Amino acid sequence: MSKMDTKIDLNEGGPAVPESTKWRLDKSNSTILMNEQNVSHRKIIRRWNRLSRLQRSIVYALVVIGATLLILLYLSKVSKDDVNKKSRSALVQEPLKNVSLVIEPVADASVPKKTVVDIESNERPIFTGPKNARQYAVVQSFKHAWRGYKEHAWGHDNLKPVTGMAAEWFSLGLTIVDSLDTAYVMGLTEEFEEGRQWVKNELVFTKNKDVNFFEVTIRVLGGLLSCHHFTQDEMFLNKATDLGDRLMAAFSSPSGIPYSDVNLGARTAHAPEWSHYSTTAEVTTVQLEFRELSRASNNPAFEDAAAAVSEKIHHLPKKHGLVPIFINPNSGHFLPHATITLGARGDSYYEYLLKQWLQTGKTINYLLDDYLTAIEGVRQFLAKRSSPSKLLFIGELSAGSEAFNPKMDHLTCFLPGTLALGHANGLPDWHMTMAEELMYTCYLTYAAHPTFLAPEITHFNLASTTEDMYTKTADAHTLLRPEFVESLWYMYQLTGNTTYQEWGWQIFQGFEKYAKVPFGYTSLANVKSEKPVQRDMMESFFLSETLKYLYLLFSDDRYVIDLNKYVINSEAHPLPIHKN
Ligand code: DMJ
């Protein structure tokens, strides 16, 4: 290589070198720079000297105006940040004190310190009961609710915990079956055995009575399958198979999209009396359960029928992956221009896309594709920021007009947990950012109220200077729903961030202070009032989901139920992940 070649090589791959500076390439880099700077400085000074007095004054004036504008810009940003900070802190109420709570571990003979059921296969987790004060407190709550139900409503669907009366819905002993695996996970052997005996001796599906296909699938079938998986007790599988056989009537529509109502005794199904339509989230939130039933019973018929629904919906046209909330079981088509929401009637369609993909060992690609497209659709059409604090929330597209409606159901707070689960399984980082921001917004829907409880629906302002969100009186009730604490548990297991435990503890104290009544825990009419009217209803999901998630959230061991091994159905019943 010649000397000349060496000089040219210095600039290889860099920016093109102007002709006039090429001669200096044999000098060191710093000398080149200094020479260039001297030349340009002299040029500037010469040009400045050539300016008239007027021209110089204009330049001075422009510099002063520019500087003033920069200072004003800086000051307005500082004060805006200040307003945002102030309005954010104004959103959070003073946390409740631990007044009447037993927060120290209590000696309790019925709470085992050792393994509940020693399952031989090491494929099953071993639940050894509460390990710290917060877990003990949650176990005490469960025992209080169970005792009240046992004394006043045993064998009925629900307890009215204020008056101590029973309430019927499907006549399937819903509270027992739904909460039995929570007792198991908490290590409550006595309660678990009481429930197991009832299921074995009393639970029958022969009554000539209509039940809701989706509710019975997620609560009863899901509960039985979890109990079977954890205990390997065939009795649970036999009950689940009998129920599954009867529920299959729902798929007998012309399109295969399930009808909403099933008569278990008669093995017939039909649309609800008020409509020809089924609910989209309902027909797409049975697949985890029917698949697990097939795998456990070695009968593919259940999985085939339910999976065909997901495939059919996969092929329907959607708005960037977002689905209307009603679907016709006769035609197999969505109700055009129905509401699009991640709240009531839409929510678990999105949840089960991801969870089915995970349940089948990430082998069914269209489920992942539909999930990714839908979450991108959520980002584009439903995710907005409130004013003035720029809180991220998920709104809805209204029926008919498809206009954006800045309202978010408490149900939508399942989304941060699902997004975090997807991210932990390799989905984009922005899903996790969205999860963290939504988690905070959901927290504020609780922390904004003196009860530290969230309303059923929160409305957001898009242009207010004072108030980001508000609650309408008609939406101010709480059913003690699980979605917020569910997401907290996902976030805690997947990140290890203990802030999520602290938030859960604050909310748990709200339940203790305002919802606890002599026979259990009651739904409340108004979370804005420190003396809320009690609605006298204890939902089965309070025991099945809310208390289970709180118990898992407060565990020092984040992996008591490992999300690498389990998908959790929409009613908090864990089901094993399969290879395909
Ligand atoms: C539960 O029955 C289930 O989580 C369902 O998917 C949605 N609603 C309730 C709890 O809020």
Task: Describe the protein's architecture and organization.
- This protein is mainly α and 580 residues long.
- The chain has a domain at 96-152 and 295-576: Glycosyltransferase (Alpha/alpha barrel), CATH 1.50.10.10.
- 49% of the residues lie in helices and 8% in strands.
- It has 18 helices and 18 strands.
- It has helices at 3-9, 29-50, 53-91, 133-153, 174-185, 189-202, 213-231, 234-247, 280-283, 287-297, 301-315, 347-359, 365-382, 415-424, 429-447, 483-495, 499-515, 540-553, and strands at residues 158-160, 165-167, 210-212, 261-263, 268-270, 278-279, 326-327, 383-385, 392-394, 396-397, 404-405, 407-409, 457-460, 469-470, 516-517, 520-521, 566-568, 574-576.
- The strands form eight sheets. Strands 3-4-5 form a three-stranded antiparallel beta sheet.
- Helix 4 (133-153) packs antiparallel against helix 18.
- The longest helix has 39 residues, at 53-91.
- It is globular and about 105 Å long.
- Mean pLDDT is 88; it is low at 1-37, 78-87 and 99-120.
- Bound molecules: 1-deoxymannojirimycin.
- The site of 1-deoxymannojirimycin has 8 residues, from helix 18.
How would you briefly describe this protein structure?
With 580 residues, the protein is mainly alpha-helical.
For the structure shown, list the relevant keywords.
18 helices; mainly alpha; binds 1-deoxymannojirimycin; three-stranded antiparallel beta sheet; 580 residues; Glycosyltransferase; 18 strands; disordered N terminus
